[in-house]
Amino acid sequence: MNDFKLPADEGSNTQDEPVMEQDAVTDREKLDGIAAQTVADLGTHDLRHVHAVVFERSTESGLHVSPGELVDAVGAAAREKDASFSVPASTDRDTD
């Protein structure tokens, strides 16, 4: 016979509340994440539009960032995305 019993208040194995964050995230890390996701969503073709969307998303998230922080975060995300899609230099081959 198994003596294991669930406590009365744990009748199911569902998660009914959010899990607490294990690591605190700084506002800058949140902004960097928003910028990276926005650049992934929209690309880098129209950075003015990307800046506007990052500003909107960060405001909706309750972040208060300076225009300089916004420009830095979007610029870093755009550079990272562009670097990951760099095309290797072509090699000249002799066709004789």
Automatic annotation (TrEMBL):
Region ranges (Disordered): 1-21
UniProt-recorded name of the protein: Uncharacterized protein
